[in-house]
Amino acid sequence: MAKMEIDAIFAFAKTKLEQFGCDEANAAATARTMTTAERDGSHSHGLFRMAGYVKSLKSGRVNGKALPKITIAAPSILRVDGDEGFAPLALEMMREPLIEMTRAQGIAMCGITRTHHFAALWPEVEMLADAGLVAMATTQAMPYVAPAGGREALFGTNPQAFAWPRPGKPPLAFDQASSTMARGDVMIHRRDGQPVPMGVGIDKDGNDTTDPAAILDGGVQLAFGGYKGSAIALMVELLSSSLIGERSSAEAKAAHNGDGGPPIGGEFVMAIDPALASGGDAWAAHGDAILTKIENMDGARLPGARRHINRAKSGPVEVSDKVLEEIAAL
Ligand code: NDP
Ligand code: PYC
């Protein structure tokens, strides 16, 4: 492992993206996304993704100079056309208009389309919770996951993220793939020669396997929790494609040139003003009582707590040598 200061990670990532064709705004937003992932210890969606970002710039599939365009479709519906760029700039640009709309209407949603998402979703829900709003986000990917009982990949690893504001404290935020394991983690297991637990996926013949290569090369991933996780993956697929007018995971694959970079796709983001929804300010203490019980329970912890502990540390963070070698070779 190498040690890097947070500022150095940002400068390194931004320079690389600019070197391969991003303008300043797109490079900075995408570098911020990778940097916050490294800062919080979300390694499968930090610098690990740089190689894919660069490959998609090199192949000309992603627009490194995208200028996302925001449209107000209805008093509580925003649309952002991502101009075929990376998702982070579109996400940063939708933040203020979505907050403003949610404060005015009580609830609002944003459909982001024509972007390439290769990141974790907690940054977008946390930034809304930091503004005092309850938030949800989902995105599709490429067909990696079979519906329960099936053997054919149809869903992306389809993450869903949720954040709840806690005045005076970091927000509660969970962010999870609807597959048993995020694809990035299966790839890291393959890179490091480690088996994955049973239940992560099946091989090309439909057999259970712990071999990450057999899952990634011709096999399929499985949803967490059997048919229940499969239903969540389905919901995420519909919210992030049909509802917002974007491609499904299968359609994103058809539009992909196989360069190893992020697929084209969309993101569904929803925000709710808890004071307007509950009719007062009691929601904060009421919700906090539930969260505090979990924090104080032996053996339990809040989702997101690991990241917030990492975030509070000062000094350099560890970055995988293998990731840095791969970036150097680009
Ligand atoms: P994990 O399984 O690592 O974690 C999922 C959630 O559970 C996190 O909020 C985590 O919090 C929480 N958690 C983990 N362990 C515990 C525990 N013991 N008690 C309570 N909560 C716990 O995440 P995934 O591997 O499923 O996903 C990783 C990332 O991959 C996500 O950020 C996701 O957005 C991203 N992803 C992106 C995709 C895309 O298309 N862009 C596709 C699929 C995934 P904590 O972080 O604090 O551990
Ligand atoms: O880790 O499953 C994943 C993933 C897919 C797209 C981006 N991340």
List descriptors.
330 residues; alpha+beta; Ribosomal Protein S8, Chain: A, domain 1; Wheat Germ Agglutinin (Isolectin 2), domain 1; 2 domains; 7-stranded mixed sheet; 4-stranded mixed sheet; globular; binds NADPH dihydro-nicotinamide-adenine-dinucleotide phosphate; binds pyrrole-2-carboxylate
Polypeptide structure, described:
With 330 residues, the chain is α+β, with helices and mostly antiparallel strands. It has two domains: 2-179 and 223-279 and 305-328, Malate/L-lactate/L-sulpholactate dehydrogenase, NADPH binding domain (Ribosomal Protein S8, Chain: A, domain 1), CATH 3.30.1370.60; 180-222, Wheat Germ Agglutinin (Isolectin 2), domain 1, CATH 3.30.60. Helices cover 42% and strands 22% of the residues. The chain has helices spanning 6-19, 24-40, 50-58, 87-105, 122-129, 183-191, 212-216, 227-240, 249-254, 274-278, 282-296, 305-312, 321-328; strands at residues 2-4, 69-74, 77-86, 107-116, 134-139, 145-146, 160-166, 169-176, 201-202, 208-209, 220-222, 264-272, 317-319. The strands form three sheets. The protein has a seven-stranded mixed sheet with strand order 2-3-4-12-5-7-8, sandwiched between helices. The chain has a four-stranded mixed sheet with strand order 6-11-9-10. It has a two-stranded antiparallel ribbon with strand order 1-13. Helix 1 runs antiparallel to helix 2 and helix 2 packs across helix 4 (87-105). The radius of gyration is 19 Å and the shape is globular. The two termini are 20 Å apart. The relative contact order is 0.17. The model has no long low-confidence stretch (mean pLDDT 97). The structure holds NADPH dihydro-nicotinamide-adenine-dinucleotide phosphate and pyrrole-2-carboxylate. Pyrrole-2-carboxylate (PYC) binds at residues 44, 118, 141, 157, 177, 182-184. NADPH dihydro-nicotinamide-adenine-dinucleotide phosphate (NDP) binds next to strand 8 and helix 12.
